[in-house]
Amino acid sequence: MHIIALLPGFAALFVSLRWSPAVAFVYVYIPTLLFFPDYYRWIAPGLPDPNFHQAAILPIVAIYLWNGGQWQFTPTDLIVLGFAFCVGFSQYLATGYADAQNLIFAMLCSVILPYALAKALIEPAGIRVEFAKVSVLVLGAIAILSLYEFRFILNPFQLYLRPFFPGLGYGWVSNIRWGFGRVAGPFAHAILAGVMFAVGFRIQRWLQSGGHWGSSKKHRRFAQLLTFGMVCAMAITLSRGPWIGSILGAAPAYLGRVKKRKNVLILLMALGFLVGVPAYLGFKAYVSVGRAGASSDTQETAAYRKELFDKYLSIALERSTWGWGQTTVPKVPGMESVDNYWLLLALMHGTIALGFFALLFVVTSLRLTIAGFRTAPYSDDGRLAFDLVGIYLMYMFSITTVFLGTQTQPMLFLVTGWAEGLLMSMKYRKGDSQQPARELKSPSFQFKRVLS
Question: Does the pTM exceed 0.85?
Fold first, then answer.
């Protein structure tokens, strides 16, 4: 029964052939990525084991290339490829190809191809609004269904799919905090769900601020309802990391909604210094008591993460170049879960992979910020650029509390591809950046005609 994981692939193939890869990307791949748990997959002996969204993306890429899809090289391509290569190669060195093939396949289908499709389609095909709307609506539907898990501590996305995938997904269980179920939805863990809903919130804020849901009173109320829904979705995950990350991400996003950006930036930097330094010193003292001296569960969790970093850092340095491999990292007794992706990446795949990963955040965020400052105040491109920086900042903080896993990984690289496509398209603007984008060279998509 595992073979049903391939069904989205057939749907994507049909839609790509009948309409276009752009239509399949928005209406098949994105809902599949968000709605179906990553850990349910087709087990193929001797071959990589694709899950739902990996099966969906392959035919879209194939038809895009078959139709003569073009590619414009940018330096970010090398960063993404470098990261994916280092992760796959380090695993190959650690355990050999037979064990590494699934991770190599995941790097292709969950890193390289999402980035490539987002870069090639979202801005060149003029589907940024459609992509954003579908993402928000699907996440909203997931949040509504997840109320069942919040109340009854049973994951409905496992209940309806588990019979088709015996033996898979049993390690992902619903957790309890403050007497309620921490909503994980189709994203395996509540913190990962919080990250995904935080992405949806930031995308929805861009849609709402740009009036993309419509200008009538009814449409404005609908947009407000969706924004409130995304906030509620983050809330029911009961995950503090994405909450704090979303607050931090609101700072750059605010720059896209003001006229005097430089003045606001200086004010935000000063505020960050005045608040950040005391907050850091206070947090350092807060976690230094150790788990034994913690006075609450929250303090114990924070102290655990500090101890975890201190003890695993020396292990990471033992094999600093290529790491230990995903499944062969030595475990510290009592600290089997490394809840910090920056540290975990160094442990598993070494400092070169970590360097590429950090470079991706720094370079893309800086380029988006510079491009955003060059747009006219209140422009749609400017708001989008700063909102994408907000998503990056949210990710940077959130993954200090959790690994970059399940759908959060392809979503990060979808955002990266979207950002790269936006930066490329902004070079084609003339005058006020509120004017429509001049499309980059791309195949003839039938997307807008289909929507009409």
Answer: yes
